[in-house]
# Entry
Amino acid sequence: MKTILVSYRVSDRDRSLTFYTTLGYLEVGRVDVETAELVMLRLPDESSVSLELVCRPSGGPISGESGFDHLAIEVDDLVRTRARLVAGGLKPTPIGHPGGPDGPTTCFVTDPDGYRIELVQWPDGSKGGMTEADFD
# Structure
């Protein structure tokens, strides 16, 4: 088994699509279903959809208080990525080192509905991602 995608319900499809394409996602396609409009997205290095935006126009605004905490995205160069986002009008947090000086560097950016996205750059020499070995 493997995780296929994350699906976010969004208040305004176009506003959210602008945010996520500025973040770096590419639109793969759209699906209109009876009660919702779906937009399928992937990151440039991904071969398949990894994020689905679900807009239910009759559902009203989203509050971001669903219990969901954040989505984490690995980046190659956090300083450059953060600068690109700032230039695109987004407001990422300052870069931090939550695991100490030898751990990953991170920052967060919040989407129009209040969902937080963590951008993570792993230290040089790290394989990236977390595995069981990180918790032994």
Q: What stands out?
A: The chain has a mean pLDDT of 87. DSSP finds two helices and seven strands in the chain.
